Structure to design on (272 residues):
């Protein structure tokens, strides 16, 4: 087995974000192999990042010490079945990024006694601004934890989650979370246009506002409520908007949306 070869099984949206983030931060492209059945996606990964690409999982996994299982939850069982013989022979560190699928299910589908790290990254990993939760099963050694942790911390924040049951909450907050922010961006842009701004002006102002606010959240050390209050002049424009958000149940909407995502994560595990 060649040391330090990383195999991505599935070369879709999330794998692309991780691969792009890793290569941009100095991981040699030659140390990454990807299995992706769609020729167009496969060729784009090779062209954009210089990684090795294969049509089948076993071709990419052969010779790799770490496997990143990055297929949809619904096909994970089949893909693990294809890899079980190789897993028994080579005992790789198995890193799953799938929503809902448990470390125990992956271990079982790969034939048992496998070191499995269940993770939940997000697409800002592409820019080194990802947020990943990680849970390790008892077969993962300290070296395995370090390896998985360093893989994810190379592309952003990595947080170990002690109780696997909390991984559905991680998925619902940070795995899916970028989509909530993009939805807010869409709504803010549309609202700016409705108030008479040109579309590109509304887009630029909304996007830069989200960037600036996000940077304040992580760089000032002040909490979100404090930062919000500093924008909200008594009797001013922000107060009018915040009161409208509160009266229309924004907090309840967010709570229900995150609960729906967590519930879907649990269903994905039960349906596998
Ligand atoms: N997108 C996101 O923001 C995040 C996704 N995830 C998780 O990442 C995983 C992938 O999601 P995402 O990237 O969005 O999905 P995609 O559908 O974009 O990517 C999955 C890819 O795997 C391919 N594939 C299917 N079967 C195999 C196989 N046997 N061997 C190799 N590749 C195969 C699919 O091809 P085909 O389409 O032809 O089936 C597809 O191109 C999911 O489990 C998801 O829960 C986790 C965090 C965030
Ligand atoms: O939507 C999904 O199921 C995946 C998991 C988290 C983000 N995307």
């Amino acid at each position: 087995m060649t040391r330090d070869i990383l195999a991505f099984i599935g070369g879709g949206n999330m794998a692309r974000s991780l691969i792009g983030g890793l290569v941009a931060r100095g991981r040699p492209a030659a140390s990454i192999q990807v299995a992706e059945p769609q020729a167009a996606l496969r060729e784009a990964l090779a062209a954009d990042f210089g990684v090795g690409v294969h049509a089948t999982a076993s071709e990419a996994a052969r010779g790799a010490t770490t496997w990143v299982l990055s297929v949809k939850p619904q096909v994970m069982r089949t893909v693990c079945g294809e890899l079980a013989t190789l897993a028994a022979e080579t005992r790789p560190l198995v890193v799953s990024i799938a929503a809902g699928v448990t470390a125990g299910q992956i271990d079982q589908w790969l034939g048992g006694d496998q070191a499995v790290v269940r993770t939940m990254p997000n697409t800002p990993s592409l820019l080194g601004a990802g947020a990943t939760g990680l849970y390790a099963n008892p077969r993962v050694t300290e070296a395995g934890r370090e390896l998985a942790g360093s893989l994810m911390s190379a592309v952003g924040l990595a947080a170990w989650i002690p109780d696997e049951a909390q991984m559905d909450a991680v998925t619902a907050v940070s795995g899916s979370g970028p989509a909530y922010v993009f939805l807010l961006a869409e709504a803010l842009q549309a609202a700016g246009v409705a108030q008479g701004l040109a579309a590109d002006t509304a887009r630029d102002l909304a996007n830069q506002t989200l960037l600036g606010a996000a940077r304040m959240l992580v760089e000032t050390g002040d909490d979100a409520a404090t930062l919000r209050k500093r924008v909200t002049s008594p009797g001013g424009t922000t107060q009018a908007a915040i009161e409208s958000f509160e009266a229309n149940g924004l907090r309840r909407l967010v709570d229900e949306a995150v609960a729906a995502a967590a519930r879907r994560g649990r269903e994905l595990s039960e349906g596998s």
In short: The mean pLDDT is 97.
